[in-house]
Amino acid sequence: MSKRTATMTDTHPARRWDPVVKLTHWSVALAVLANAVITEEGSAAHVWVGYALAAILGLRLLWGLVGPPEARFAAFPLSLGRAVAHLRDIRAGRHVAHRSHNPLGALMVYAIWATLLVVIGTGIAMAGLPPARTGARLTVSEASARGEAAQHRADSEDRGEHEREERGDHGDGEQGEGIAEEVHEATATLLYGLILLHVAGVAFESRRQRRNLALAMLPGRG
Predict the structure, then answer these.
(1) How far apart are CA 61 and CA 71, in angstroms?
(2) Is-contact 63 71, C-beta < 8 A?
(3) Tell me, what DSSP letter sits at residue 137?
(4) From CA 83, how far away is CA 21, in angstroms rounded?
(5) CATH number of the domain that 42 lies in?
(6) Domain assignment of residue 137, yes or no
(7) Backbone dihedral angles phi then psi of residue 142, each to the nearest 5 degrees
(8) 115-134 confidence digits (pLDDT tens)
(9) Alpha-carbon distance 94 to 76, whole Å?
(10) Residue 135 maps to a domain
């Protein structure tokens, strides 16, 4: 590759993210952080953060269909072949501009979204759908009762496990809830790992391109 070609491929246009992408990105990050280190598992706060996370993710997925070109799924297709080619570019020191996420970044985005869907789905399977109330909000006492009920179910499962083992009885419903809880915890752990890899990938690409890619996701930037 000639020096002229190298210079052209090393030039990256400034990444531009629209306000909805920025809002959903940081909202998801805050919701995951809140339920990971702040709220108590099974509490009303934990459940409601989960509901909010579902709404935020739903908005981002909808925006992938109707949003601006850089935010749409077509701008960062899920492609293992493209990801492998991007790895070859990295190894060869080539810098290819992408209008949205690069192919490896796209794989990570879809992996995080898929994991979030499983976490949210299993969480709703355990806690139930949010109450449908017309013209009224859930009171503090009702929210607390909902959280206590979820915690009570978890405690009852622990107490009843020994009794079921003694009787040799494994109810299908309780077994289903136990599976949902196990999948929920496992995928949540996987999600934390993916997020760490995502942060590492952004740091690596920022160093490789000699510009801070995270700045483009901040409000008022890009």
Answers:
(1) 10
(2) yes
(3) P
(4) 22
(5) 1.20.950
(6) no
(7) -70, -40
(8) 999 999 999 999 988 876 54
(9) 19
(10) no
**Amino acid identity for residue 180 in this structure:** A
Backbone conformation region of residue 160, classed left if phi is above 0, alpha if psi is from -120 to 50, else beta: alpha
Cα gap 49→33, rounded to integer Å: 10
The residue to which tokens 């949210």 are assigned: 120
> Is 141 within the bounds of a domain?
no
Q: Does 167 reside within a domain?
A: no
> How many domains does the chain contain in total?
1
User: Cβ neighbours of residue 70 under 8 Å, at least 6 residues apart?
Assistant: 16, 17, 18, 21, 99, 100
- Per-residue pLDDT of 127-181, as tens digits, reads 988 876 544 455 555 555 556 666 666 666 566 555 555 555 555 556 667 899 9
What pTM does this model have? 0.76
Full domain range(s) for residue 25: 16-130+146-159+172-217
Instruction: Please give the Cα distance from 63 to 152 (Å, whole number).
Output: 38
